[in-house]
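Q: Could you fold this chain for me?
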Amino acid sequence: MKAARNQLLNLLETDFLSQAVRKTVFRYVSRKAIPARELEDVEMTVIEKFINQKQQIVANFEGKSQASTYCIAIVNRMCCEVIRKEWKHWQSVDNQSYDINLGFHPLADNQPDHALLINLELERLQFALNKLQQSVPSAEPLLMFHFELELQQSALKNWAGSKLDQLKIPLEKLSGASKTTRYQIIAAMLSIVEDKKIKPDALRMRIYKYMDMLIADLNQNDQSEHTRETLKLLFEIRLQHSENQSAVKLSKTIVYAKNIVLLMLLNGLPWII
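A: Sure. Below is the predicted structure, expressed as structure tokens.
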């Protein structure tokens, strides 16, 4: 681990960071998530954020990925944070730039890429979820069960390990079960995985706690105003994105509507439909 951190430190002694930030910010500018006029300011903001957090960033690096990949992921997340924080301000500046003669603003030149901003929000969710999973491995499965979403086989295997076969029948019973029964089944499965008796009421409290921990992480620094309802919707969109290549085709109209409803609920993103 020490060798990996030294590798990261050596990388940061080069101009890699400035180049990575410029490429990342330019990509968002090209997708209209960041106004072109803000390119240099966003670059400086991200570099400053990275430098201020450098000690913690290095300390958190475990060498499980390439140092460059690790840095780019952090730069990408920091760009997302800047976009979330500054969006209202950027739009207010745009709104002051109306063409006096025409009386309207050329929306086509400034409309953001909805897909990109949805992906940014999904990246924030995944980052928060990964952080929670490090201390609570059961968090994602329990939340997926709570939201009545299908957990992928690989995720089930990672969670249950050698006890996966014991969950086959309870998993089959989940489909169509009432809410009360679902909690009883989920509690029984969790008891098998964690090898201790879990009561449904205790399970419910744990799930609500995990939801609130994720919401607090997503909403920190006023980046958004998530609630338990929008968190559920975000999980649904995340699952839909993961199924894009599957044989099951979802209605594009429904998916798009859910995306827009979600993003309209978030603070600071005035969407144009």
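A (continued): The longest helix spans residues 67-95.
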